[in-house]
Amino acid sequence: METLGTADTMVFSGFFVAVIIGGLAGWLAGKLVTGGGFGLIGNVILGIGGAILANWLLPVVGINLGSGFFGSVLSAMIGAAIVLIAVRIIKKV
After folding, report:
1. CA-to-CA distance for 56 and 12, rounded, in angstroms?
2. 65 close to 36: Cβ distance less than 8 angstroms
3. Angle in degrees, CA 79, 34, 48, rounded to 5
4. d(C-alpha 74, C-alpha 56), whole Å
5. What is the distance of C-alpha 81 from the center of its chain?
6. What is the pLDDT of residues 52-87, one digit of tens each?
7. Which of 61, 40, 6 is nearest to 79 (CA)?
8. Residue 30 contacts by C-beta under 8 Å, 6 or more apart in sequence?
9. What are the φ and ψ backbone dihedral angles of 66, each rounded to 5 degrees?
10. DSSP string, 30-93
């Protein structure tokens, strides 16, 4: 049986942490943005997308919220809120 190397373990744990942070951020964004959200699962999925968006967008506009867990959750929550509002606008059209 083949064991996972250090690089494989780091990729898996990085993905797992990203899902946790994105899920937490989606839940928080659902509470922050008024209008009920898309349910727990929908908000978690939007949170993961928002975390990806925030990871790219915030440094581009010169915003740095820190590199720790709380900075990551805060930036992902901002990205999730942006995605949540954008999906609501598109859904109304």
Report:
1. 21
2. no
3. 25
4. 14
5. 9
6. 888 888 888 988 887 777 887 888 888 888 888 888
7. 61
8. 37, 38, 40, 43, 46, 84
9. 105, 170
10. HHHSSS-TTHHHHHHHHHHHHHHHHHHHHHHTT----SSHHHHHHHHHHHHHHHHHHHHHHHH-
Sign of CA dihedral 25, 37, 48, 60: negative
For 11, the token pair is 């990729």
Tokens for 67, please give them: 């590199």
Q: Binning pLDDT at 50, 70 and 90, where does residue 20 land?
A: confident
**Residue tagged 């440094």 (tokens):** 59
Calculate mean pLDDT across residues 20-29.
Answer: 81
What is the rounded CA–CA span in Å between residue 80 and residue 65?
15
Count of residues in the chain: 93
**Which long-range contacts does 38-42 make (Cβ < 8 Å, 24+ apart)?**
38/84, 38/87
CA 2 from chain centre, in angstroms, equals 33
* Owner of token pair 């373990």: 9
Assigned token pair, 31: 């509470």
